[in-house]
């Protein structure tokens, strides 16, 4: 910086401080100045604050809304809204005893009817639980504090789905018959049983929660207020961590070029734990198979031949990401198919396929122009890399950045897209995180992160459904490897790399990560030292 100009870094620092002084308002600005307040950061703005029917909104959901169970680092369950549970020997009956004396934030009593409503609704509208709960035929509530799930066939991974972020239990008394659960007010102003009470959401700025004074666990939460700031500019997020303007963020919410610098700062810690329940995502390009050009497999094969995963890891992710041609991330070592793409990086092969598909070379003009939807600056950088790579084969890519809500409407409701650059959760089992992408019964208009490509394959459907009910783990693994080989060959989507994820936190915080759910859990045990 000199007396004639202002550096970009100084400008960004000022921008990062603006919400605290202005947009945040007096209550939030005062909260940030107090020692019993934690400020979190979001790199993008979620379309909702509840993950009940919107899986893209799990980042803040568990602050207010709880599940039946929570899970330690080895995915062993422990009590939350359920105090006891039992699974029958044949795997067809799950019995939960519920915690008594729990109140919703509006003062109403929590009971079995809330659990029945939540699971039944999640089975219908949740992109992952449509398959997880597919075998549930009936839910009984013999009294106010007992729930019994009856299954047609075993679902060996079902119990693990009962976390706060995956299957939040919502207040049934707020949902009137005939109301659209996808647009229900509780999605954006959630009332739950959790340790924090939602207070306000100023779009583009912040969310504010306060400690629940009537929380059933009288020892929690340890912090009086939580503030979540939306900072879209990645450089401003780095500065916010440097200056202490934010305390914590997850999924490595800074550019990878800045990771080494932040790791050297004495007041900042990086924590790889807390992703055992929801491991690093697969970064993937989904194609719209309804599109005339992309319905041609030779076009999709040509796109695949333009992908150099090692170069993506090296150039875009500074070698932090792990290349993967499979939609099942390498984190799932048993399930992951560690085979290269059947379409190796080969521009000449891509050009030949485009010729055969009816898109011949035409001087310097593009053979084919495709739009690519994305969210956030990190995806913009990757999108620019992919645009350059595909241009070598004569494919022009038009990048279209937007907020998450707009993207969900465009891709999953209106289906007005060609390519979708996405970050997809595998979760604790590929049956939960990956099946939704390729199962034809999960083509549901309006439901985010369902089968957006429109992919349909009877053999894949059967393998997915057989794997979902098999109690033989070796058989499940083999079926999943067959599934991966088929979808890698038919390329409804183009898996690229596995995300590198860590939680970044100011060292004044302790116990922000105490189990497998990490940042996606309640944060009730987190405290300031």
Structure description:
By secondary structure, the chain is an alpha+beta fold. It folds into 3 domains: 8-64 and 181-277 and 502-528, 3-Layer(aba) Sandwich (D-Maltodextrin-Binding Protein, domain 2); 69-174, Dipeptide-binding Protein, Domain 1 (Dipeptide-binding Protein, domain 1); 282-498, Dipeptide-binding Protein, Domain 3 (Dipeptide-binding Protein, domain 3, Roll). It has helices at residues 8-21, 25-33, 58-61, 112-125, 129-132, 234-243, 259-263, 297-305, 309-316, 347-356, 377-391, 404-413, 430-433, 435-438, 458-469, 473-490, and strands at residues 37-42, 69-71, 77-79, 82-87, 93-98, 136-143, 146-151, 196-202, 206-211, 225-230, 248-249, 268-271, 282-287, 322-323, 368-374, 395-401, 419-424, 493-498, 503-506, 509-510, 527-528. It has a 6-stranded mixed sheet. Strands 1-10-9-8 form a 4-stranded mixed sheet, with helices on one face. Strands 4-5-7-6 form a 4-stranded antiparallel sheet, with helices on one face. The longest helix has 18 residues, at 473-490.
Shape: globular
Whole-number tally of structural domains:
3
Average pLDDT number: 93
Radius of gyration: 23 Å
Strand % is 15-25%
Query: What strand line-up does the widest sheet have?
Result: 14-18-13-17-15-16
Report the total helices: 16
Provide the structure class: alpha+beta
- Quick one: how many beta strands? 21
CATH architecture of the largest domain: Roll
The top-level CATH class of the largest domain is Alpha Beta
Assign the CATH topology of the largest domain.
Dipeptide-binding Protein, domain 3
CATH superfamily of the largest domain, by name, is Dipeptide-binding Protein, Domain 3
Segments where pLDDT lies below 50 for 5+ residues?
1-32
- Helix content range: 25-40%
N-to-C span = 35 Å
Largest sheet: number of strands, sense, barrel closure: 6 strands, mixed
């Amino acid at each position: 910086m000199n007396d004639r100009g202002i550096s970009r870094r100084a400008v960004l620092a000022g921008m990062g401080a603006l919400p605290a002084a202005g947009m945040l308002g007096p209550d939030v600005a005062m909260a940030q100045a107090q020692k019993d307040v934690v400020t979190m950061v979001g790199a993008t703005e979620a379309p909702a604050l509840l993950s009940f029917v919107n899986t893209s909104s799990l980042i803040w959901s568990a602050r207010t809304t709880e599940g039946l169970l929570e899970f330690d680092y080895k995915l062993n369950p422990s009590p939350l809204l359920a105090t006891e549970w039992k699974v029958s020997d044949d795997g067809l009956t799950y019995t939960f005893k519920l915690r008594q004396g729990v109140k919703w934030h509006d003062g109403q009593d929590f009971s079995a009817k809330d659990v029945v409503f939540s699971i039944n609704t999640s089975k219908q509208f949740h992109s992952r639980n449509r398959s997880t709960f597919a075998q549930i035929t009936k839910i009984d509530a013999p009294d106010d504090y007992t729930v019994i799930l009856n299954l047609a066939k075993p679902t060996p991974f079902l119990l693990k789905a009962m976390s706060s972020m995956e299957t939040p239990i919502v207040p049934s008394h707020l949902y009137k018959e005939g109301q659209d659960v996808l647009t229900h007010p509780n999605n954006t102003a959630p009332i739950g049983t959790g340790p924090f009470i939602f207070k306000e959401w100023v779009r583009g700025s912040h969310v504010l929660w306060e400690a629940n004074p009537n929380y059933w666990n009288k020892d929690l939460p340890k912090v009086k207020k939580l503030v979540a700031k939306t900072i879209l500019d990645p450089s401003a997020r780095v500065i916010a961590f440097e200056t202490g303007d934010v305390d914590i963020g997850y999924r490595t919410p800074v550019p990878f070029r800045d990771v080494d610098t932040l790791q050297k700062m004495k007041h900042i810690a990086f924590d790889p734990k807390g992703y055992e329940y929801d491991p690093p995502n697969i970064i993937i390009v989904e194609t719209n198979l309804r599109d005339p050009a992309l319905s041609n497999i030779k076009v999709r094969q040509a796109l695949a031949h333009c992908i150099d995963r090692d170069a993506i890891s090296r150039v875009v992710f500074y070698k932090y990401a792990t290349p993967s041609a499979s939609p099942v991330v390498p984190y799932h070592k048993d399930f992951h198919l560690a085979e290269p793409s059947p379409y190796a990086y080969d521009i000449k092969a891509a050009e030949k396929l485009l010729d055969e598909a009816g898109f011949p070379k035409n001087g310097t003009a593009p053979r084919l122009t495709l739009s690519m939807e994305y969210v956030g600056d990190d995806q913009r950088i990757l999108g620019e890399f992919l645009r350059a790579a595909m241009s070598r084969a004569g494919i022009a890519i038009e990048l279209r950045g937007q907020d998450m809500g707009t993207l969900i409407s465009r891709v999953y409701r209106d289906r007005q897209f060609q390519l979708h650059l996405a970050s997809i959760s595998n979760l604790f089992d590929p049956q939960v995180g990956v099946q939704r992408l390729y199962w034809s019964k999960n083509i549901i208009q309006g439901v985010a992160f369902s089968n957006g490509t429109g992919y349909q394959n009877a053999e894949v459907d059967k393998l997915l459904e057989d794997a979902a009910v098999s109690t033989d783990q070796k058989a499940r693994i083999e079926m999943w490897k067959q599934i991966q080989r088929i979808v890698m060959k038919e390329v409804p989507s183009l898996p690229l790399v596995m995300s590198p994820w860590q939680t970044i936190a100011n060292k004044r915080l302790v116990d922000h990560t105490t189990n497998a759910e990490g940042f996606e859990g309640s944060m009730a045990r987190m405290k300031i030292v």
